[in-house]
Specification:
The chain is α/β, with parallel strands linked by helices. The protein contains eleven helices and eleven strands. The strands form three sheets. A six-stranded parallel beta sheet has the order 8-7-9-10-6-11, sandwiched between helices.
């Protein structure tokens, strides 16, 4: 049994940290299997060493948030826990006995390849695992490199089809008020995947591949009931899945298939109080050695240089 203490004497700060009816603390107790109590101006955390260490680190971050904002929500707790307990980052450099990661695609006179050590680790993980999870902020190439490795596998005849999937979560817009038929309404959600695809395959060729259903770009709901063999399957914006949706998606994996799941846990559009399926999967599956886990960082952002500054500014306001 290990115990750690956190001095905290301000009653308002304690209330903000613990949440309504101690909801925040109950969440931490369940996640880390620890006892958390407050007495004599100290928060005490007791349990096994790892649980106490992780719970205490989360409490320290939540305390700073409570001091700054005056309150801490369950969503804040879940976000910080997910960030704190995400599986270890894949090694940013290639081992000495193997070449740096590359994607064997040449299109429009240029070669597609990783542009940072983190991106190289991501491509290595996809090559080495049937299932890979990638977390990272906007602009780190999560979608782009996943689509590139899928096209590479298709051209090498390692798979017979590519399936690009996104949850159709409404971020401030209502599908019913958008013009057009269902295909037109869904197009904005699937557009980022199509944009990435069109950078690697000629437009006419990609249209023919989609007509022949060799490449599918579909909403997550359309995956139910399917088992995909000899396929490369990508789930983009996975932070917007529920736990049930994530389980449904992961169990579509068939023989001789590969899956990539990518998302940004700081940009969720789920209704308040709905736990992210991506966070749940990271917590649930982190002990399975045959699954690849990669976390891309701000240093891996390869869009306009301002994007990294924007990400920094937003993350600074959330810590």
């Amino acid at each position: 049994m290990t115990e750690a203490t956190l001095p905290i004497t301000d009653p308002a700060e304690v209330l903000a940290l613990f949440g309504p009816r101690d909801q925040n603390v109950r969440t931490l107790r369940q996640l880390f299997d620890v006892r958390i109590t407050h007495r004599d101006g100290r928060i005490r955390v007791a349990g096994d060493r790892q649980g106490v260490t992780e719970a205490t680190r989360v409490l320290e971050r939540l305390r700073r948030m409570a001091q700054r904002n005056g309150e801490v929500s369950v969503d804040d707790v879940q976000r910080i826990v997910a960030e704190q307990t995400a599986p270890p980052i894949a090694s940013p450099g290639a081992p000495a006995d193997r070449p740096a990661a590359e994607v064997d695609i040449r299109h429009a006179g240029r070669r597609i390849k990783p542009r940072s050590p983190g991106q190289a680790a991501y491509v290595d993980a996809i090559h080495d695992h049937d299932l890979t999870f990638c977390i990272g902020p906007a602009g780190t190439g999560k979608t782009y490199l996943a689509v590139a490795t899928a096209v590479e596998a298709l051209k090498a005849q390692q798979v017979r089809k590519i399936v690009l999937v996104r949850p159709a979560i409404e971020a401030g817009e209502n599908l019913g008020f958008l013009p057009g038929d269902l295909r037109a309404k869904l197009n904005p959600y699937l557009r980022p995947l199509l944009d990435a695809l069109n950078e690697m395959v000629d437009f006419d060729q990609s249209r023919k591949l989609m007509e022949d259903e060799i490449i599918e770009v579909i909403p997550l709901a359309y995956m139910r009931g399917r088992t995909l063999n000899d396929a490369f399957i990508i789930l983009d914006e996975a932070q917007n899945t529920t736990t049930a949706q994530m389980k449904m998606f992961l169990t579509r994996l068939g023989e001789r298939s590969r899956m990539v799941v990518s998302g940004d846990i700081s940009q969720m559009d789920l209704p308040r109080g709905v736990y992210s399926g991506l966070r749940d999967a990271l917590h649930r599956l982190s002990s399975i050695e045959s699954i690849g886990f990669v976390r891309l960082q701000r240093a891996d952002i390869v869009r306009h240089p301002l994007v990294q500054n924007i990400v920094d500014a937003y993350e600074a306001s959330q810590d």
